[in-house]
Q: What sequence folds into this?
């Protein structure tokens, strides 16, 4: 039997309560000689029993005193006289309690202490089990959340791939404009529907107070295509749907104040459509 199994078997508690069989007593004492941890556990249980008995000690009431005097064949007046006689050195007879009552009283105390200690032991084991269950539930919830995030990522990737591989999708690369380095992006223009999807994942985050704005160049004039979201609370956006254009000559991205502008003020990337 492993050391942990020995300590959690309950035999140590029975041994300390005096309720173990001779074979169990011999076994526990052998373990105590072999394992210092078992000896320490025995000492701890015994100390707990003693502390519990002291903490729950009850002063008997007056009725108990009267019944005790009655069983001893005394009354309070006679008891007081005998106490006084003892104080001056007079020897009074000792009234012994029968062996049966001593045994019954000892058994009652042992059962009471045993019940209390076993309650504490099993309560602690219940708490340990409950903590382990809560930990397992938390781990399961975390795993489920991770799976949900992974499913969303896979769904988003599948949706992006559907756009890229759509036979009507016309890719247009938007090249950075000096001095806006690193502002490359790619759009996918659906020629059959006029829908526009932009992959802005390579765009750097816009400076504070600024936002990227999308434009289509139609008949030589810029037409607002909507604001581009690149980052939302740490979530990096990849494919984003913009406004629909039935026709366009080119597409561009500008850096504007938050909320956008009626006309582009700082163009950072542009790309022409090649049919």
A:
């Amino acid at each position: 039997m492993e050391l942990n199994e020995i300590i959690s078997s309950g035999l140590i508690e029975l041994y300390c309560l005096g309720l173990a069989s001779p074979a169990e007593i011999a076994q526990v004492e052998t373990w105590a000689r072999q394992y210092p941890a078992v000896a320490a556990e025995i000492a701890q249980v015994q100390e707990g029993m003693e502390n519990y008995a002291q903490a729950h000690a009850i002063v008997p009431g007056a009725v108990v005193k009267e019944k005790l005097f009655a069983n001893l064949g005394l009354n309070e007046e006679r008891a007081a006289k005998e106490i006084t006689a003892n104080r001056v050195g007079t020897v009074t007879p000792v009234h012994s309690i029968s062996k049966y009552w001593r045994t019954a009283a000892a058994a009652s105390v042992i059962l009471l202490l045993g019940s209390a200690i076993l309650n504490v032991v099993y309560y602690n084991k219940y708490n340990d089990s409950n903590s382990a269950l809560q930990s397992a539930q938390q781990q399961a919830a975390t795993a489920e959340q991770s799976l949900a995030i992974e499913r969303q990522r896979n769904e988003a990737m599948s949706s992006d791939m559907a756009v890229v591989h759509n036979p009507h999708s016309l890719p247009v690369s938007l090249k950075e404009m000096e001095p806006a380095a690193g502002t490359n992006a790619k759009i996918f223009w659906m020629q059959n529907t006029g829908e526009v999807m932009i992959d802005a994942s390579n765009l750097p985050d816009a400076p504070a107070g600024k936002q990227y704005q999308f434009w289509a160049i139609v008949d030589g004039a810029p037409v607002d295509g909507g604001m581009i979201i690149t980052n939302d609370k740490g979530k990096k956006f990849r494919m984003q749907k913009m406004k629909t254009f039935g026709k366009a000559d080119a597409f561009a991205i500008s850096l504007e104040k938050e909320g956008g502008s009626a006309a582009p003020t700082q163009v950072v990337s542009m790309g022409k459509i090649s049919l």
About this structure: The CA atoms of residues 127 and 133 lie 10 Å apart. The chain is about 50% helix and 20% strand. Residues 169-272 form a domain with the Immunoglobulin-like fold (CATH 2.60.40). The radius of gyration is 43 Å.
